[in-house]
Amino acid sequence: MVENYIPDSLKKYGLDYNSIRALNPRLIYASITGYGQTGPYSKRAGYDVMVEAEMGLMHITGARDGPPVKVGVAVTDLTTGLYTSNAIMAALLSRAKSGRGQHIDMALSDCQVATLSNLASSVLISGEKDSGRWGTAHPSIVPYRGFRTKDSDIMIGGGNDRLFGILCDKLGRPGWKNDPRFISNSTRVRNRDTLEGMIQNITKTKTTREWESIFDESGLAYAAVNDVKATLEHPHVLARGMVQEVEHGLCGPMKLVNSPMKFSETKPSIRSPPPTLGEHTIEVLHDMAQIEDVEIEKLKKAGVISGN
């Protein structure tokens, strides 16, 4: 069972974990909330953007000299869902050994803290504040950021001295490799503004596609900054089967994003198109809840449910 109500709010219905566990000790019960079942914020309503703000993500996202911004998708909601699915699978393995279910307490706030990753480690070890927002740049590697081209933007990663040398050659500036200001990553970091400005002056003379052609097969890390439409039409995305077409009963052919999981034996697929409102109500009541047809008809007539 998975629920996302404020803690203790399901007790009055007898649907809290302890009540249901008494009926089925094997139950795996996952509670997803903004701030968890315990702690001073546990009764707060939790929304992705609020947790992004409260738990550090918004502070480190955005332009270097700009205000904090939220991530373009509800990333904390998504990571919490991923952590929850992993937790449920782990609980299933545990139940296979012990025969007992358990309560899984998942909080958006916890998951956001966990995904601060190396930035959290740096702060914990140093005891100092983080270095703030860096836009597309990296705080300790230069050059490693997005640069403007003639028609859009391109990410370039000269992550070490060898890759920086390749970049210099491809930009037509081999002399930079021996320039004392840029001869090592530490000197490049110290002279970040100068070097990045010099690179920008060159990248904006060609289109992104032209630069991709120049960088191709060089070993340099680079990537076009694509919008969502370009991403969904990207040849690699299509080759990986990430966009699939299904037939919808009302809408006709419909393209959907596919599962990212690839197995050697099991083949995940989109089993059905998005359901219309109430499409599976009768099926769920009849097959899963085992409610008799006559009772279902009474519910329909009373306006409690709809569906075919």
Automatic annotation (TrEMBL):
InterPro entries: CoA-transferase_III_domain, CoA-Trfase_fam_III, CoA-Trfase_III_dom3_sf, CoA-Trfase_III_dom_1_sf. It holds the Pfam family CoA_transf_3. Keywords: Transferase. Belongs to the CoA-transferase III family. PANTHER family: SUCCINATE--HYDROXYMETHYLGLUTARATE COA-TRANSFERASE (PTHR48207:SF3). This is Uncharacterized protein. It comes from Exophiala sideris.
